[in-house]
Known about the structure:
Blueprint: E1 3-9, H1 14-24, E2 32-38, E3 45-50, H2 53-59, E4 70-76, E5 91-92, E6 98-106, H3 109-118, H4 128-142, H5 147-157, E7 160-168, E8 175-180, E9 185-189, E10 192-196, E11 208-211, E12 216-221, E13 224-228, E14 234-235, E15 240-241, H6 257-263, H7 265-274, H8 292-297, E16 300-305, H9 307-324, E17 328-332, H10 333-336, E18 347-353, H11 359-370, E19 374-379, H12 385-389, E20 392-395, H13 408-427, H14 433-443, H15 446-455, H16 457-466, E21 472-477, H17 480-496, E22 499-504, E23 521-526, H18 532-543, E24 548-554, E25 566-570, H19 578-596
Parallel strand pairs: 16-17, 16-18, 18-19, 19-20, 21-22, 21-23, 23-24, 24-25
Antiparallel strand pairs: 1-4, 1-10, 2-3, 2-4, 5-6, 6-7, 7-8, 8-12, 9-10, 9-11, 11-15, 12-13, 13-14
Helix pairs in contact: 3-4, 4-5, 7-13, 7-15, 9-13, 9-17, 13-14, 15-19, 16-19, 17-19
Amino acid sequence: MCGIVGFTSRNIQAAPVLLQGLQRLEYRGYDSAGIAVRNGEEDPVVVRAKGRLKILEEKTNSGLAIPGCCGIGHTRWATHGEPSERNAHPHITEDMNVIGVHNGIIENYTELKEKLENNGYRFYSETDTEVAVKLVDYYYKKYKVGPIDALAKTMVRVRGSYALAVMFRDYPGQIYTARKDSPMIMGVSDDASYVASDVPAILQYTRTVYYMDNLEMACLEPGKVTFYDLNGDVVNKDTTTIEWDAESAEKGGFEHFMMKEIHEQPKAIRDTMNSCITPEGLIDLSAAGLTDDIIRSIKSITIVACGSAWHVGMASQYVFEDLVRMPVRVEVASEFRYRNPILDPEGLVIIISQSGETADSLAALREAKAMGVRTLGIVNVVGSSIAREADHVFYTMAGPEIAVATTKAYSAQLIAMDILAMQFAYLKGNLDEKGLIAMTTEMRTLPDKVDHLIEDEERIQWFATKFSNARDVFFIGRGLDYAICLEGSLKMKEISYIHSEAYAAGELKHGTISLVEDGILVIGVLTQNDLYEKTVSNLVEVKSRGGYLASITNYGHYEIEDTVNFNVYVPRTDPHFAATLAVIPLQLMGYYLAVAKGLDVDKPRNLAKSVTVE
Length: 614
Ligand code: AGP
């Protein structure tokens, strides 16, 4: 989604810093960009461009054409109004009194626009952001107040989500910010201050950051950030040091971030395990505040998430139900939040989210909290909204994930959920200590097995190249294998733009099999031994109708080669952990299909890394 960068210093030129920061946010997805820079007390110079950042760089001679030490920049992912130069941020008042950039959605912008029009304001764009900026200007002038009061009045009046960074003509060298439900951080160094919607934008300049809370405002001056609450009172805050280095957000010799992140999966899995599996093979969830008594008191589980994180939930449902014998529901967050859900007061709601900022997942978390139900966030980004608002947080240790298509965060989430399930099973008496240690010992072998699977990439590349012209692909599997299919199918469609669907294998003949015709690719996932033969039968049904078959199954099932045209063997493991291994060839397949088609693997069209609007 949209990205924000702001910078103010005494003597460092702002435009190159803004452009570099925006470059680091490109992975979030965008369709236009813009910057505004002030040179001392002069009015801001605003440059906007539709399309890739390099157009903006060309227009500004890499920033050198716009002198000045204070500025704001933005990459826009269109919500209100088409992607165009006119709709790109920053937006500005006619008299250049207020200029701003904004992430999020102002829900009541039509009503506010009307109010402003009645007060003489005219609008040149279709955006809600222009309305927000002009509303700040309206309150600033009407009540003759300072920037913080004008922002506070605006915040009370607007509905929706926002991270807003604004400059006022009367306050050169200063940037003002406001935040509700859209992430924003501030960084400081000796002689400069930074604001950004995500850490990578400023990491090359400073590791000392402040996390801005909901309904807070801030004033940035060179080397100093002051925070305010809605009453305009100063809020004292401590800085946090970002531990990961800038290189973790670089490609490190790989052609794409996605490939780099696929290769980082063994580490992501290992680090997540090491964060809570003791040297003796037991599990310690004290970092998440999940004591033995709390776990024993939980009677049911509801998992809520979006996209791949929802697929992790789907896989975990099989693992939890089988290991813990406890009711588990899995919900898509965007449905859950509007369905007036019935929650078990003695239950646990688990929100899974890499970014910790996904709007629907965050809203679901709040819904559960408002109903008084205990919540747990499985989150990758430290300090994100879900991490801060959930009652308990289990951090996945995947490190920064840049490619829009998730790989290592998905794998770390699977591990986190498996660990939870094992601990629940142990504390509720479904798994004895010996059984638990046997499982954690097996889990520790997964990173090497993942490595081994990644080594098989050339065969998968060959196969993907052969099918790069495919129009439709089906993934079929039963039980946990069906959950793996959901992720395999999403990986394929989101980056290779090939239509694909995941089906519970037994469900195919209830309608969808009519789509199977000569040469159509059907990929079976068969890691669950007790369901193996049933899925083979479903594959045979497809084959007799002309389908071309590929499969993923465990070493040992060599007879599969009598049925399918192409197979990838995965190392044997505890069946509960199968998703961690079987997903690897599917990730590689999606990746190589996209590469074969010459597509933008890391930034697929229309998609954003962190979906901070509904
Ligand atoms: C998957 O590759 C996508 N990036 C997407 O489905 C993602 O998993 C979803 O938007 C949820 O994001 P989150 O984990 O940051 O909440």
